Request: fold
Amino acid sequence: MAIKGVIRAGFMQLRVLDMEKSVHHYEDILGLDKVGETSDGRVLLKGYDEFDHHSLILRKADSPGMDFMGFKCDCEEFLDEVYEKTLAYGLECQWVDANSDQPGFGRRLAVKLPSGHRIDLYASVELAEKYPGLVSPEIWVEQPRGMSVKGFDHALLYGPELDKTVKYMTGVLGFHIVERCDKPDGSQLVYWITSSNKPHEVAFLEYDKPGKLHHVAFALDNWNEIGHAADLITINDISMDAGPMRHGVTRGYTNYFFDPSGNRNETYAGGYTYCPDHPIRVWDMDNIGRGIFYYERKLNDRFLAIVT
Ligand SMILES: [Fe+2]
Reply:
């Protein structure tokens, strides 16, 4: 397999209102490991199946949402190429020093997308203190906790200028469009795009307000774990959005629920294997309910209305 350029979604810095409740949610209930705290009070976490120093950063703020999302790239030269191409495309971008606000990470190129989101591209990151075994490994080093999420998986981002955003992600960064939903006028409502064999690393939906987060998703192994996660959502009295259920889009299994700050989380498992020679799957507005909520076949108002 030769995945070049951007190789995967790597991290997200998330704004939370109450750090103690948020750490309990992500550490004890989802099952991420806390790996440290920065001098400015941000908390760093990672999944048991991840190698990188950290993949989720919680920052206390007055409003929930996403500060930025990081994508791991295959080499430093790619970042230099992207810097030139991003300026030529007409987007703002700037370098962030290695080991500055993200301990363990090399230099990052921060790009302001037309959708209003910031994405950071990086090619080097230190191994975490604890990571999956490498020599005749067991299935895990320590028994996973809570929902047993393996790590950060993908995000759905809402913002304006969908076409210009996705043209940048595909034309400059090399993402592939896996699925999309067309509106009756022929324009697009949403694109699911990938840089790997996963059916999506990120998705963008056309929305009037910039820089919004619809959900941040964490990976589970299978349908049984989706059911177990749903049990924990109820046992811990967490605000449930939808699930356990399946998507028509990507064919993944899923739960949607809210963290204590109102950020929507997803636990996601399964989905087909994408290959870059696959044709694009296209949904229309009459069928998109089935695309998102496959069994119910229609969207709920909450799912459409709540973003952070
Ligand atoms: Fe998702």
